Amino acid sequence: MVEADLYGSMRSHIPEDRHSVFRMAIRDGLRLKHASAGDAVIGWFGGLPELPVGVDWPGDGKAHYEHVASIDLATLPKSDLELPRRGRISVFGDTEGSAGAFLYFPDDIALREAALPPDLESDDRVFERVPMTYAVVPTIPSPRWLEEHLLYEDDADEVLEQLEAFGTKFFTHSGSWHQLGGWANEIQSERDRGLLPDSAAERHFFPQGAPAGQILLAQFDTDHAIGMGWGDFGTLYCFIDPGHLAAHEFSDVAVYWECY
């Protein structure tokens, strides 16, 4: 993905009679970026997390996961995820496996900086801490989804070629792309349902019933600047069932990574 002129690309790559339908599928997300001086800081990448007394650093029982990021929800703009307006989320990932953890702490729970577990320290498995900021960006479905829902049976080959070129342009990016909400940029699987339950877009594209899949909470890309990597240029994903998201129940978030 790039922060490109999405609508300009739409006009040049997508048939005009499908513009309104395409717009229905667009969802805003937050691109999470390294903060510079003067940026609004919403949390941090890497370093040490802050955890409540009595809560263990997450792991699989054999080793601990690396701390990926922590975000203060009170600093975020309102989004269609309808996350809690206050509290803290912390994400952990296992660079030597494929799992991780997503923790949410309400703002009435006291937090303190956790000590780095000895196994992470001895293996130097800690990402560099850098402050985090954000930019609101449009996100779109995968190229396969676009072809499935925007192509007609009688379309000429040129239409497919234009859609493929559009997807390639939008999903190609230089630099790391971390994101909160919106459509996922999935590498291998197709877990992302993308559309929110009972939304106008869901009713339009799936009139016979809700699509399968989960909602993306966050994704964290390979980020060499801070030593973060998931296999071969992979991405760590955090997905949640729509019902659990609506109930702000974060105890069963699917956290895993995929790579090329």
Automatic annotation (TrEMBL):
InterPro entries assigned to the protein according to its UniProt record, in alphabetical order: DUF1963, YwqG-like_sf
Stored Pfam families: DUF1963 (PF09234)
Protein name per the record: DUF1963 domain-containing protein
PANTHER family from the UniProt entry: SLL5081 PROTEIN
SUPFAM superfamilies recorded: Hypothetical protein YwqG (SSF103032)
Organism annotation: Nocardia speluncae
Tree of life domain: Bacteria
